[in-house]
Amino acid sequence: MSLMSTRHLFKSSLGAMALILSMGATQAQSAHPAHPPHPHDMGKMMTHHVSRMAESIGASAEQKAKLLAIAKATQADIKPLHEQARAGREQGRALLSAVTLDAAAIEQHRAAQSQIHDAISRRMTQSMIDSAMALTPEQRVKWAGLMKSRHGEMGEMGKMGGRGDMPRRPMHDMPAKN
Which has the closest alpha carbon to 16: 165, 144, 168, 107? Predict the structure, then answer.
């Protein structure tokens, strides 16, 4: 698998899991006047988003409990993998900034990072399957609609550079760091 397809798979998988955790965010804020938890409190934020998603698709209390349990287990399983990937990025920077480049070590590092990303993708895919199995066919259709609208919103953000309404500047226009 090429580095680009691995990155695409990883980003797609992250997006899919984020959708599980944040699909409720597409509802109007007026329906939920309380502000969502701070992003650094991932447990509360996940509970908030899963609860809103469950409400938006008409999930029962039992289904909501199942979805929360699935999301919490997924989060617990993926957290150490994310930490490994983060450490790997630091290792990759060190390998690429070394005085003497070691192509074999860089390739070995790439393969190891791909394995971590694949493990994350597999776990998130299983979480999506488990979540879908907890829903009725009608709820899955609603869920798919929420994912589609959320994915569309994310695509529009990407066209604008990811955040805000300012287009992303080309790299050659960036000021040099001193």
Answer: 144
